[in-house]
Amino acid sequence: MRLGVMCSGNGSNFENIVRSCRVDEVVLMIHNKRDCGAARRAQKLGINHCYIKSKNEDEIIQLFTAWRVDVIVMAGWMRIVTKKLIDAFPDRIINLHPSLLPKYKGLHAIEQAMDSGDSVTGCTVHYVTEELDSGTIIEQLEVPILPEYDIVSLTKAIQRAEYALLPHAIENVKHKLQEQDSRYLLQDDLHRRDSGFERTYMDEQVV
Q: Which of the residues are catalytic?
């Protein structure tokens, strides 16, 4: 499966995807901050990357389409996307959020969980819709809030959970796309099918 990733910040989850999803390939990472950690990680890992402003969704769509991306992963993309982008990749854009949705949507989710006195929080991967952090949940992972935790240590604990959760959720999405009723053919499978058709047609012509 061909993956596209959207980042705004440090890019640790982007790097985790590259290193963990061995069967699938991250073919392009788009970042909306010119000099961010994600861009430096892409350079180090040899992953194609491009700076595009968040509002330029036409360019984002064109690039992900040109790179034949199956699934787009928003891994720290700190902007709300519009219906235009969602409709261009229906049921193929997913987002990682640091809470057990539907609790604590939007910004400062970790701080909200701690300030509310919760004993447990976690992270969620969900499908992206027009409503913020409200798409169908794909998978979640709980993280206990230990008495000794502060914001920094709890954030690190949630990040560790994210590293485990996200590759598993991506695999889940892949299996759903491969189901017969999904009516979607992964790009690599489509390429192999088309190549096979061309090869068969050419052989028939030779004969």
A: 97
Per DSSP, 105 falls in state -
Question: How many structural domains comprise the chain?
Answer: 1
Distance of alpha carbon 129 from alpha carbon 102, whole angstroms? 14
Round to whole Å and give the CA distance between 33 and 51: 7
Name the residue with tokens 């069967």: 23
Question: Which has the minimum average pLDDT: 6-10, 95-99, 122-126, 180-184?
Answer: 180-184
Q: What is the pLDDT of residues 122-160, one digit of tens each?
A: 999 999 999 999 999 999 999 999 999 999 999 999 999
CATH number at residue 98: 3.40.50.170
Residues 125-157 as b or e (16 or more Cβ within 10 Å = b): bbbbeeeebebeebbbbebebeeebeeeebeeb
Q: What is the residue range of 98's domain?
A: 2-206
Q: Are 133 and 126 in contact (CB under 8 A)?
A: yes
**With helix as H, strand as E and coil as C, how does 143-185 read?**
EECCCCCCHHHHHHHHHHHHHHHHHHHHHHHHHHHHCHHHCCC
The pTM assigned to this predicted structure is 0.91
The maximal CA–CA distance of the chain, rounded, in angstroms, is 76
